[in-house]
């Protein structure tokens, strides 16, 4: 049996390579854990998406709320793609572009608020409260609008994402992992938390008075967030 002699330099280099790879894996896991924690914190922070989700849970029921939640995620993916393509820098660096998108987003949220306030209450004897007919497409499109017309999200991604992207690793793979994490966390929080919380208010919609009161509350919340988006 022939024993091959491996130079000590080669063995040290091999061990060093394995250690570096193990270190890189640990760093990746550490970065992903930090990303996961940040995504949870962001998703649990009440905003327009949370208000939209709770409102849908009251109006169309928990199950159909998922279409609005998916619309919110589609907008997040588009915003992430804008940042990845470098267009986010253009939006952030152009006061005009930023202002146009910001005011459009604010106006859209105010529109949703007025629409909610003016919503006609439905008597419990006429239909099942919480199951008001709305197409999946309309819920999805409004969800896209709620998140997409918010330039501050693009600026936030510009400040937030680079900290989790390593230049020495695959660019596309990292953005895909970041996007998958953001979407998975936000779907879980919106549908399993905010939609459930919103559905808890459904017992207050058994009367026309209760429905009108909740419509005014959520309408005011939409308008308030829209005003904040415009002035802050």
UniProtKB/TrEMBL annotation:
<dbReference type="GO" id="GO:0042970">
    <property type="term" value="F:homoserine transmembrane transporter activity"/>
</dbReference>
<protein>
    <submittedName>
        <fullName>LysE family transporter</fullName>
    </submittedName>
</protein>
<feature type="transmembrane region" description="Helical">
    <location>
        <begin position="66"/>
        <end position="91"/>
    </location>
</feature>
<keyword id="KW-1003">Cell membrane</keyword>
<feature type="transmembrane region" description="Helical">
    <location>
        <begin position="177"/>
        <end position="202"/>
    </location>
</feature>
<keyword id="KW-1133">Transmembrane helix</keyword>
<feature type="transmembrane region" description="Helical">
    <location>
        <begin position="214"/>
        <end position="231"/>
    </location>
</feature>
<keyword id="KW-0812">Transmembrane</keyword>
<feature type="transmembrane region" description="Helical">
    <location>
        <begin position="32"/>
        <end position="54"/>
    </location>
</feature>
<dbReference type="InterPro" id="IPR001123">
    <property type="entry name" value="LeuE-type"/>
</dbReference>
<dbReference type="GO" id="GO:0005886">
    <property type="term" value="C:plasma membrane"/>
</dbReference>
<keyword id="KW-0472">Membrane</keyword>
<feature type="transmembrane region" description="Helical">
    <location>
        <begin position="144"/>
        <end position="165"/>
    </location>
</feature>
<feature type="transmembrane region" description="Helical">
    <location>
        <begin position="97"/>
        <end position="114"/>
    </location>
</feature>
<dbReference type="Pfam" id="PF01810">
    <property type="entry name" value="LysE"/>
</dbReference>
């Amino acid at each position: 049996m022939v024993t091959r002699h491996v130079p000590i330099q080669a063995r040290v280099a091999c061990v060093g390579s394995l250690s570096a790879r193990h270190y890189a894996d640990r760093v990746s896991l550490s970065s992903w854990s930090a990303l996961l924690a940040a995504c949870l914190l962001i998703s649990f922070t009440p905003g327009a998406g949370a208000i939209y989700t709770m409102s849908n849970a009251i109006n169309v029921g928990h199950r159909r709320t998922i279409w609005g939640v998916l619309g919110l995620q589609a907008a997040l993916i588009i915003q992430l793609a804008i940042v990845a393509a470098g267009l986010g820098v253009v939006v952030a660096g152009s006061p005009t572009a930023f202002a146009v998108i910001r005011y459009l987003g604010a106006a859209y949220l105010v529109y949703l608020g007025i629409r909610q306030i003016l919503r006609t209450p439905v008597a419990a004897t006429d239909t099942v409260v919480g199951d008001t007919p709305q197409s999946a497409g309309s819920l999805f499109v409004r969800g896209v609008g709620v998140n997409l017309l918010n330039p501050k999200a693009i600026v936030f991604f510009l400040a937030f994402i680079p900290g989790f992207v390593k230049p020495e690793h695959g660019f596309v793979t990292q953005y895909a992992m970041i996007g998958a994490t953001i979407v998975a966390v936000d779907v879980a929080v919106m549908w399993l938390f905010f939609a459930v919380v919103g559905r808890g208010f459904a017992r207050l919609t058994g009367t026309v008075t209760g429905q009108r009161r909740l419509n005014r509350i959520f309408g005011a919340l939409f308008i308030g967030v829209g005003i904040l988006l415009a002035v802050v």
